[in-house]
């Protein structure tokens, strides 16, 4: 499948499945030092809230990077993923010792899980794909429903404005020929759905989420990929320290391909 074929698929959920026939989610967060920044930043944030014995829900779990990390650090994880290719990649990595319940399912209907079942709820993939506001709100409502009253919710978005910089890095003609509305400077939401920082805030607040933290989870790592990948171990460790030092500064939020929001219901 290519992008032309993908664009012809009208069913949103079939299009999501097709997207991951093109994009290899199994290596996205671990293929390089630069790619690892998003994962390490997100884990660093989640671990500040984890307590012994906490139960974690991973909604839109992809190929299992977060689920397996936390399961192998002693937590019980329940994971749901829509795309068949991602589910297959996840299953291949599971061992008999992994405390992970994995199922294929849709983030807007988590009726297989009871109310207030989880201490930590991760919603890292679905909001990359849901075009309709009512679906986004159903997804957020389900995440809130399965979260305990004193639990924490973590939401990821793809940042709208940063895409222009990363596309320009790959295509010097992007501003002349790129796939966006050249009058409004609005990206076309394909193959992902993009949100500005303010749009992310509005979506979560409309869903009754009390936002506590806003984080530029990968910062400039995609734009600076070659430089970051060339760093030696000491320099990379110091780069990560700098990134964690700056990624919650308000002025840095728009300069990131991915955004992480932490909230309570």
Describe the structure.
By secondary structure, this protein is an alpha/beta fold. It has a single domain, classed as Vaccinia Virus protein VP39 (Rossmann fold, 3-Layer(aba) Sandwich), CATH 3.40.50. 41% of the residues lie in helices and 21% in strands. The protein contains twelve helices and ten strands. The chain has helices spanning 3-7, 12-22, 25-28, 33-47, 65-71, 84-93, 133-146, 162-170, 174-177, 197-206, 225-229, 233-246; strands at 55-59, 76-81, 100-104, 118-123, 147-159, 180-181, 186-187, 194-195, 210-216, 258-264. The protein starts with a helix and ends with a strand.
What's the quick description here?
This protein has 265 residues and is of the alpha/beta class. The protein has twelve helices and ten strands.
Q: Could you say what the CATH architecture is?
A: 3-Layer(aba) Sandwich
Radius of gyration of CA atoms, rounded to a whole number: 18 Å
Series of secondary-structure elements, N-terminal to C-terminal:
HHHHEHEHEEHEHHEEEHEHHE
Q: Compute the number of strand runs.
A: 10
**Would you identify the CATH H-level superfamily?**
Vaccinia Virus protein VP39
Q: Do you know the CATH topology?
A: Rossmann fold
